[in-house]
Amino acid sequence: xxxxxxxxxxxxxxxxxxxxxxxxxxxxxxxxxxxxxxxxxxxxxxxxxxxxxxxxxxxxxxxxxxxxxxxxxxxxxxxxxxxxxxxxxxxxxxxxxxxxxxxxxxxxxxxxxxxxxxxxxxxxxxxxxxxxxxxxxxxxxxxxxxxxxxxxxxxxxxxxxxxxxxxxxxxxxxxxxxxxxxxxxxxxxxxxxxxxxxxxxxxxxxxxxxxxxxxxxxxxxxxxxxxx
Length: 228
Prior knowledge:
Order of helices and strands: HEEEEHHEEEE
Strand order of the largest sheet: 3-2-1-4
Oligomer: single chain
Strand content: 15-25%
Helix content: 25-40%
Radius of gyration: 25 Å
Structural class: alpha+beta
Number of strands: 8
Largest sheet: 4 strands, antiparallel
Number of helices: 3
């Protein structure tokens, strides 16, 4: 009887080991069959967020998006951009800083207005429509022309794509831009000009190259000393 029980237990253990090994082998096979996707083949189709500009031809629209950056950096950083159209226009204009386009890092219509950023779906940060949007478009274009780093790019601590959108936010407070905390580069300021408006355009900021700084005022009151 004892021998029979021992044989049964041994058989069950052997079966479990065999099933586990087979399952692991199958999982490994499935994993190996998943192709590694490079940035060149990552999807960049529309996320379906931006309103149809043809249907809303009589409406001015200004929107700001942000999406996780490509690869593992997407866990820690975002890439933002701005799109807009005037009343009567049937297509959006998009601007964002693209580092690998240096020295021309500020292309026009580099990608679809609300396209995935190399596989990452964007989040809508700002949405203005109608007269408010129409009244700020000239100021937005003037802010883009005054961006001081149009020929420079550095992913950390800046200037980068977040530095560009923060510059627009400072110059156009009506945009009411509130970039997320992981928008690395939004607080970048040169050592020669460490004091100025916060990226939202509604407060005062002191920042040393975006590495150490403090801001006060606006909706958030004091913002604690931060490392970016």
